[in-house]
Amino acid sequence: MKVTIVGAGLSSAVACTILKKLGYEITVFESRPHIAGNCYDSELKGIKVHNYGPHAFHTDQKWVWDFVNRYDKFNDFKLEVTARIQDGNLINIPYNNKTLSLVGSWDSNRIIEEIFIPYSEKHWGEKWENLPKSFTGRLPKKREDDSPYYHLDQFQGIPKSGYTNWIANMFDDCEVRLGCNQNDWKKERADLLIYTGSIDSYFDYCFGPLSYRSLKFSFFEGVKTNTHQLNECNTTNSWNRTVDHSHWYEQDLKKTIFSREWAESFDVENLETDRFYPEPHKTQNLYNQYKNISTSTIFLGRLGTYKYLDMDDCIKQVFSILRKKLTLDL
Question: pTM of whole model > 0.85?
Fold first, then answer.
C-alpha cells in the first residue's frame, strides 16, 4: 500500500515510524531544502543551533520518552529561562520561590504586569486586554517550588546527535523528496494521503487564510554568557528572546552563537514569513469549516490541525489519530 506524506517535520516522521512497520511504501514531500520542520538544527562555527527557535523536549509520559529514545539517545538537558523585566533586572521564570528570594513577594497582578503583559503583547501583537481568556487565563501565575528549570516534566532532554539526525533516523527506509513545489505531491498516486501542511492551503484557501503569528530570526556571534534563554519581558527591547546555543550541549567556549527572534504577523502573500503560532481566537470558525469538509486525507500536526502543540503533543497526536483513522492497535 502506497502512502504520500506532505511535510517532513516531526509529525510526518512519527507517522513514518508507524506505517513502515506495517509494510506501507512511503514517499514524503517537503518544500524546504531540509527535513525536520521547525525542529531543524545545524552546525554554525562548531555549535549546534536551533534554526527556528529553541526546542527543549519534555514529557511526563514514559512511553513517549521511550519512543523518542529509540531513534537517538537523549541527554538530560533542562531548560532554564531568565527574564529581563521593565526596570532592567534579571529574574528566573516562571515566578517561584527562587524568584521570590530575588525580588520579594509578588501577587498575581504584579506577576502578570511584570512578566506576562510585556512579553505577550510583543508575541501576539495585541494589547493584553484584547487577548482571549483562553490565552491569558491559562498562564501559571506562580509556582510553589525552588526549581531553576522552566519545565517540571519527569523526562527532559534533547537528542545527543541533534534533532535533524534524530528525525532522519525516523525517516530511514522512506523516500524523502526535498525542495518540492506545492503541486509535486499531487502527481504521486497513493492509497493514503497524510497532510501536515496548513489545512487552508490544502483546500486552496476556499474559505480564506487562517491566521498565524510568524517569527524572524537573527544569528550572531558573541561572548558566552551563563544565561541560556533570555526573555525580554519589557517594552525597551523589540525582540522576544535571545538564546545562547552553546548551552544545549554544555560547550565550554569563550565565544558562542546567539539567536534573537521577533514576532510578526504571517502573510500568506509574503514568502518571507512562515506559520509558527496558530491564532484560533481570530479564525477558529474558518478552521472548523475546513475541518468539516469531507475528505479521506488525514491531517496531522500544528498546521494540519490548527493547534499549538509541543513536541510530545505532536507524537501523542499522531499515534491517536492514526489509531483512530486506520483502526490500528498501537
Answer: yes
